[in-house]
Structure formats: structure tokens, C-alpha cells
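Predicting holo structure, flavin mononucleotide bound.
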Amino acid sequence: MEFTDLDVENAYRLLAPRPTIIVTTVNLKGQVNAAPFSFTMPVSMVPPLIAFASVLSHHTYKNIEETQQFVINIPGENILEKLWITGEKFPPGVNELEKADLTPLSSDLVKPPSIAECIAHLECEVKWIKKAGDHQIIVGEVLKVHADKNALKDGLLNAEHVKPLLHVGGVNFIVGDHLKKVE
Ligand SMILES: Cc1cc2nc3c(=O)[nH]c(=O)nc-3n(C[C@H](O)[C@H](O)[C@H](O)COP(=O)(O)O)c2cc1C
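Done. C-alpha cells:
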């Protein structure tokens, strides 16, 4: 191998492709928000904690600060275009689920809805939030999980069936064994 130096600001580009989630939240008025995130990872099994990082200005972050709740929705390949729409900049209070023609489902233990078209829903309550550079790390405790019956096989994600959306960066995703660009 022949190595070259990269700008350190691009180091995260090498930690890819990353699983992409759609986070649903509500504000104090109960207005629904949805947006995709790929800076995400599990951080504890017991208790079950999952982290993701959001820019301070995102409505997702503001809603979580206000209500301390969110749902992590795990999309499959069939909703890539809809996921992309939820990532567009809309004014506060706009429901991206309506914009993307995604179906809200009532969650069991938290106010934000889950997304019917996603293969799994993780209902979360904030454990802690900490600033990390230009993002805020949000760690949530998973209170409840629903998953499509075929999402797991022998206790593991049935990736061949689910075809998770893996974000490489920008419009580029790995789906199955190929690169897909959102148009
Ligand atoms: C695939 C994908 C992954 C993204 N990952 C992140 C992320 O990890 N952190 C972040 O702050 N923004 C991320 N974004 C950008 C936000 O989703 C986008 O700015 C969105 O409009 C924020 O919506 P909100 O203001 O309604 O929360 C991502 C966008 C896409 C399309």
C-alpha cells in the first residue's frame, strides 16, 4: 500500500459506510419532525444506550432538548428517496413525514411517532447530552423496540433481507452490494 496524508477534517469520511437512521421527535406543541442521521452508534448494552451526533441548529436537536424523547427508525432500501426528503431543510414545525409521504405510527412509551415504513423503531429517552466540537452527542436509553418479524435472523440483523442504507457521504449510499446515488 502507498499512503498519503489527508486533511484531518476528512478523517470521518473513512469511517464509512455508516448505518443511517431517521430520528423522529416532537416539539412542546406536539409538532412532528423527522431527519436522517449517520453519526450514530450503540454505546452500552446494559442499560441499552445509543448515541447520535447532531448539529445544534437542527430542529431534531431543539426538540430533543425540549422534550427529552426521540425515536430511532431504521430504514431499509425501499425508502431511500423518502429518507432523502426528510433530510431537506424545512422551516420549524414542518412535518417531514408528510413531505416524504411516510406513515406515522403511535409509539408505546414516547410522544414522537415511529415510521411505519421502517423495519424497526427504538423508542428512546435522553440519558445525557454533551457538546463535541460542532455537534452535540445525544445518548438515549432505549425503552422499547419493535422490529419487523423478518428483520432478525438467528438474533442478528438479516442484512440480506433488510438491505440497510449505509451512508458513504453526500448523495452516496451502499445498498446491498452496490453504490447508489440519490438523484
Ligand atoms: C444521509 C444523511 C445523514 C445525515 N447525518 C447527519 C448527522 O449524523 N448529524 C447531523 O447533524 N446532520 C446529519 N444530516 C443532516 C440532517 O439530516 C439535515 O440537515 C436535516 O435537514 C436536519 O433536519 P432538522 O432540522 O429537521 O432536524 C444527515 C443528512 C443525510 C441526508
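Residues 20, 33, 35-39, 53-55, 58-60, 87, 89, 135, 167 surround flavin mononucleotide (CB under 6 Å).
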